[in-house]
Structures
1.
Amino acid sequence: MTRTNTNPYIEQGILDDCDNDYNIVSHIRTLVNEGIHYCKKHKDMGALAYNDHLFDNVITKLDSILADHVSPVQNQIEEGFTHHER
């Protein structure tokens, strides 16, 4: 029987893996959030008046990246922390 919900930070990783990867994922999250903030700020300033839909499209995509890709990995890492700090 194959497991579909495996967590490599629990099954294979060590605490150092969690620390290192958490730092990277947190930095990625920060950069994506900065992109969202940048778009919102410039949209509010009226930039790209003829193509302001670009901001909404980019914000939506960046939100999806956070929700679909960054958050699940961050959750796995946090579960790894909990497991290794027992």
Note: The chain has three helices and no strands.
2.
Amino acid sequence: MVYLTKGNPNFEAIFLSLDETTGKHVWVHVSKVGGGIIGHEYEGSWDVKVTSLDSGEELLHETLYTYTPRTHRQVSDMAVKFI
């Protein structure tokens, strides 16, 4: 599931993902720093925020850097592993 928002100049993709460690669902907000089109691969900095689906608690808010080109979805999957 992907939601697109215009909350900032970098379009943000929001994914509903499963945290395999806890078995609970989380929202993962991903935007490419400097802008990027959903579905295209980019390397560089990504703004990532993970929140609990149940409580809305912020579990992670980081800037991730990828040396290998990734899509928004791939970065979302990476972020869930950091919580």
Note: The beta strands are 2-5, 12-19, 24-32, 42-52, 58-70.
3.
Amino acid sequence: MRKLRLLFGITIIFSISLFTHCNHKQKEYFFNAKQIENHPDPNQIKIIMQAEPDSSFERLFYGKKRFIQMYYLQDSTEFRFKNGQLLEVIVHKPSVEYDPGSITKFGLKYKMPDEQDSTAFFRWKNQYAGFDVINFYKVGSKKSDRKINYKIFFKLSQ
């Protein structure tokens, strides 16, 4: 009888720990994509990121001036602005897995990518409100180590 109670107690403890582990809310990334879908300005990005940018500068892209805020400590995330409103976000060194399911880390529900080639990219076109494209794409040459070099690109709807 004593062994039966011990076994029952262990089963209950195991069940509770498994239940709480499975129901633990998935940790989100350092910004929630839903917070940026309405073209926030540079000051609003500082609030969303809860930090001052590590660098701010202007750069020409195809002859068009863009204001850029860089957050190197947050996976080298680049926020590009046009006329004071967010246009694009590029995460240069993401710390999430190269997997379509990682889209949920940005506070978005999982949807199958429109286009994918797991050796090159995962792309969602017009599937998420406020975004024309969200793209996980590999960069650089193939290396012998297991680390996958890729970037994440968010293009907001115009």
Note: Residues 31-156 form one domain.
4.
Amino acid sequence: MTSGDHKGIEAIRLKPGAQTETVVVEASTTQITPSDSGDKSFTIDQNILQNVAIIGQNAAEFIKIMPGMAMTSGALNQSSYAASDEGTGHGPVGSFSANGQRVGALDITADGAHLVDPGCNCGQAENTNAEMTSEVTVMTSNFGADSAKGPVVINTVGKSGGQQFHGELYAYGRYFDMNANDWLGNVAGKDPSTGKQIAPRPQTKYFYPGGQISGPVIIPGTSFNRNRDKLFFFFGTELYRQSVDNGIYHAAVPTGANSPGTSGNMRAGDFTDSSYVSKLNGYAITGTPNKGGPLAAYTNGLVNQAAIDPNGKALVNVYPLPNVDPRVGLNGGYNYIKALTRFSNMNQYRGRIDYSINNSTKLYVQYNHQNDNAEESLDTLWTGNAQSWDDPTTPYPTPIVETSQSEVVTANMTKVFTPTLTNEVIFSWVYLNLPNSFKDPAKVSRDGLGLTYNTLFSHPNEGKLIYPEMTGWGDGISNQLNSGFELNGTVYAKKTLPSLADNVSKVWKTHTAKFGFYCSAPGTRSPATETSTGLRSSATGDPTPAAMPTLTCSSVRLAIIRSRTSTWSRPSAIYPPSSMVRIRGRFRAR
């Protein structure tokens, strides 16, 4: 029997064999034409879980080999789910389309607890670890009234204890030595001064040590559970130690002193190297600025020092320094190319108690805890990878770290009243906390950078706000698009999903009727995240009409250092806590 199966057993007759014969009875897990249920499902059992290799440690990754499942990659040249970064809130849900359904149509449960993030309908509150899972069943249609959600549900059943004690230690590892470099890394070429690759293959490392112990609960000196048939336990833990590929950054950034290929220091107002400037990526960059603007702000590529705004200079300096000459090789006019990795660590602990109250009443309680310590992103929080929608982008002066936490509790009691009447009650509580903050706030805060410009709306801790998002909308400047961090320097989402379900099964002669009730009250609480610290769009030319025709290059970088802004936006609202109650009753008879 597998999770969600309904098997009918016909008359079985065994003929007596001779004394020298061996009778072997084998049970098949495949039923060509189910006669007791109309559901369509596929089960991955323990044999597949242990013998088919996967990339990560999430048993739900096996849906990749299930019929009807398709990955959604979007506009990027990569799969939407690479299973290379295991963590709380991650997982394949939200990255697969089942039978042509939208990605949000996929639900996943673990021992009856619904794990999908209620805020985005993506990711998992619990990592369904392949070493702690006994089977995975994917139900795609026509399932019974005991399945509250759909249209596609992944049901996972965790391991439990048995009559014999069992323990094991294990470790999985992957190392970058055997990896090939990405084409984008190879095409960046080598640094002429060192002979080393500009974007070498990422030094990714994955190490997953873990252990398990299970068996009957025996209290020494007592007769409790002497026959090992009443109370059983299971405990498993795994440590996830990962160095994750963050992709390759390609961007045009302001030069500094002694930047490769030029002596012009844009951060000090020197834009005189016309051959260098004209090759930088960006349609607004065509040559050296000549003259114009109030206070004769620039002449022959030099910015008047009196016209340099201290706030603009501080914002220019948040960008990393160039590391390549944009005129060399196939670099596409980018003077910053960098391949980076980030660490992503997590600890997971899972326990389960099974109690046989009597022959007709069974109870189990399952608890899973996870906590993360990871660099969630080096650039924009919402992407986590250099090749993303906000490209070209560059790392922030300090990475965003997450200390996520999740708790999942499930209690299940099954009562067989008569051979034809069974009732099952399931209660689950899921808590998901996803806090993200900058590792070194002083490198991104107004106080730390010395920013003194006025804000559109008052704030009790104005000095702790991070610097505004910055973009040139394709003019060549690298995007800096982190938002939020409004209240206490942390973007967080605290989510809960309590639920209660009751399933009744009744057999009348040759017919089986099922009644199902499910109630959940998901809630989420988070601060504002829409440009709450401001979005600064740099001007592509000086606002003075007479100067417009003369300013046709390096305009965005020049606009920032002079603190010339074309648009500025910032909402004043802080999102209140939100919650919703969802009650659903289902009935299906056969």
Note: Confidence is low (pLDDT under 50) at residues 539-556, 573-590.
